[in-house]
Amino acid sequence: MLKEYSIKSIRMRQCLAVVSASGLLVAAAPPASALPGPRSEQWWFEAWQIENKVWPLTRGKGVTVGLIDTGVSTDLPDLRGSVVGKRITADGVVDDSVDHDTEKGGHGTGMAALIVGQGRGSGMVGVAPESKILSIYKGVLLGTAIRYAVDHGAKVINMSLAQQFAYCTEATQSGVDYALKNDVVVVASTGNDGPDNATLGEPANCVGVVAVAGLDAYLNVWKDSSAGANVVVAGPAADVGSIGRRGAFTAKANGTSQASALTAGVVAVMRSRYPKMPAREIVRRLLATTRDVGPKGWDKFTGYGAVVPYRALTEKIPGNTPNPVYKRIDDLSAGKAPQQANQQTALPAAPNTSAEKPKGSPGLLIGLIGGLAIAAVALLGFLFTVRRRS
Description:
29% of the residues lie in helices and 14% in strands.
């Protein structure tokens, strides 16, 4: 069971090996196949124990991740054969295997590489390299894009974007509802407006979405990560480099977009390892195995804590473990007002087996209660007597 992870040197290797429950440093094992290892800048690989613990179990085979973004440059060596490029227009769906992002140099391509990168060009490797990306251009209504992803085989949908709506629009919520009813996990970034942001943008503020905030390599909240009541988990967001639309790797990149894409990759390997497990249980498992890194319990900056892939893949999770994301959906279905994350039942803490049990017997407690009852009766009698005398 993973206990903690930390970073020693960002320049040399970007991180230390993960510390296991036994307290020993875990040595990195060579990959089981010909797939190259990650670049030295990809510090989250060691922090998440991807090569030596996650990949021996699964690399995401058989899972399609719907990526609603700026498109993907599918002909790049790092992505060739791993992406289905599509663009939805008002008139239908048109084949389109290019990234339309000229402002940021290829946002969608970068997110795709974080998930399914093959390392054949720049050396960029994704956390779920045997998964596939269904690329959907975001230049349409999100609800329509979500439905398209669901209807074309996606088991996970990632939206590394934040639209500036203080509420989830009916069309987008309808799309999310459709995804959940069809056993699809929906993941979205919280945004980069900083911790003082009062509300999350769409789609992170939609009911049923796994909203992902950002952390740095030291498990601190990334300085620009948006906070809010819908945040449920946190992932790597600082110094998380990737490739752009032309295939060049950029090391110094930041954003909750990366945290969301990497978390979607974790969900992909979970769905690959547990192909018959419902989306509801996948999300329950993801939340129940986080590491609490903010204020104790849920908080608006990191949700229930940092995503820990190996724990999510291996730990036994009781069936009655709370599932705050789906609790809100259940409340809505039952006609109740959905609760915010910080109003929900907290996820269970580990039992405190070292605490000393209180000494004494049931008789002592009963005697104490009886004594208090007698005293109360006597006090009432005294007050009644005083009142009669006055």
